[in-house]
Design brief:
The chain is built from 13 helices and 18 strands.
């Protein structure tokens, strides 16, 4: 593998590496996973290069730091440029009205220095701000498993499809760390998300946050875990979940191997709250899904009774933040009767398409429906 001798900037100039970071597929994932296994010393350089490329991925509008982080990064890079230039005078980066990322575009012209500074800063900042529970999550991720991170930096919901068929709808400002392929069904959440988990009693699914772990066998539920010291909340839509305080349950991973639910068990329309101050989990009265700030996907019943297919697709679009393309002349007069509550996004689409005798394909946030039987 020619990349065995690569430095950070070599990775940044490697077209195959850039393609993998921006548009990963199964073949590329296998190749780079094998590379990291064979050359573990290259992991820091690969991670720095990956973060650098994601920050500059303008086509998605995601992966951008906050304004405060952007300013700190700008100052860090300026300092690094001066040091690398042996204290030569470096013109300060300036921002143009209308975009806070102009200085980054300027920085691209001196990619060698900037990539080292930005990569090192971004990597160190991520490690510094993550709570201990996240560090433990990363540490205990099985060898050879690559962690991905989905960040919702938009003002709309973002649907993440996991390798086991489960779906997670991230609210704006939230992020999810998850394995590209599950050995153990475990993810780490910062922010708010609604989970619809494929049922598998033999393999429980765990959601870690900064203070608690939520264990499920296959159900739908909401987790609200702010980055600050505000309380963490869990609410169940369907099925049952068990919630554990991490500082009281050092053996959560051992408990996860059992198909039984223990700890604080919640059933539909029940919720719990965890406080950093008290370090305690408390059952909350009433349904959290009735609150105004509840996600659309969590509020939606997904019960359809002779519902026009256009309305069905509109409901899915709003709930999951996707755009659905279909042949209105072919399917426009069709209707659907089905209950899709609690089912992951893939399963919902499969049921709808089976009823329509159609097929679906997902690319990014776009769903394309093809085929189907004309309805009169």
């Amino acid at each position: 593998m020619k990349q065995a001798s690569y430095s950070l900037t070599d990775f940044l100039e490697d077209a195959d590496f850039i393609r993998w970071v921006k548009h990963p597929d199964e073949t590329q994932d296998v190749y780079w996973q094998q590379f990291l296994e064979a050359h573990p010393d290259k992991k820091p350089a690969v991670e720095m290069a990956r973060q650098y490329i994601l920050v500059f991925a303008e086509q998605t509008g995601q992966q951008q730091p906050t304004a405060a982080q952007s300013e700190m990064m700008r100052q860090y890079i300026q300092k690094h440029v001066r040091e690398e230039s042996n204290e030569k005078v470096v013109a300060p980066f300036t921002r143009t009205v209308g975009t806070s990322w102009s200085w980054l575009r300027m920085a691209a012209s001196i990619a060698l220095v900037i990539s080292i500074g930005l990569g090192a800063y971004w990597y160190s900042q991520r490690q510094a701000v993550q709570p201990e529970s996240y560090q433990q999550f990363v540490k205990e991720t099985p060898a050879g498993i690559t962690l991905k991170e989905a960040r919702n930096d938009t003002d709309k919901p973002l649907t993440v499809l996991l390798s086991d068929g489960s779906s997670v709808v991230l609210q704006p400002g939230s992020r999810l760390s998850y394995p590209d392929t599950f050995q153990q069904r475990e993810v780490y959440l910062t922010g708010k998300a609604f989970f619809e988990i494929v049922k598998n009693p033999a393999r429980p699914f765990l959601v870690y946050t900064r203070g608690i772990a939520t264990k499920v066998l296959g159900t739908s539920f909401m987790v609200d875990a702010p980055e600050s010291g505000q309380p963490i909340k869990v609410a169940v839509k369907t099925g049952s979940v068990a919630v554990y305080a991490l500082d009281e349950s050092s053996s959560v991973r051992q408990k996860a191997a059992s198909p039984e639910l223990s700890g604080l068990v919640l059933t539909p329309n029940q919720g719990a709250e965890y406080s950093d101050a008290s370090k305690r989990l408390v059952r909350m009265p009433g349904s959290m899904f009735a609150q105004p700030e509840t996600q659309v996907v969590a509020k939606q019943s997904f019960d359809f009774d002779e519902t026009p297919v256009a309305e069905v697709f509109s409901t899915l679009e709003k709930a999951y933040g996707v755009h659905i393309i279909y042949d209105e002349t072919m399917l426009g007069k069709c209707s659907l009767s089905a209950s899709l509550v609690g089912q992951p996004f893939h399963d919902k689409l499969a049921v709808v398409c089976k009823a329509l005798e159609a097929q679906y394909a997902i690319q990014g946030n776009q769903v394309t429906i093809t085929g189907g039987q004309r309805c009169q």
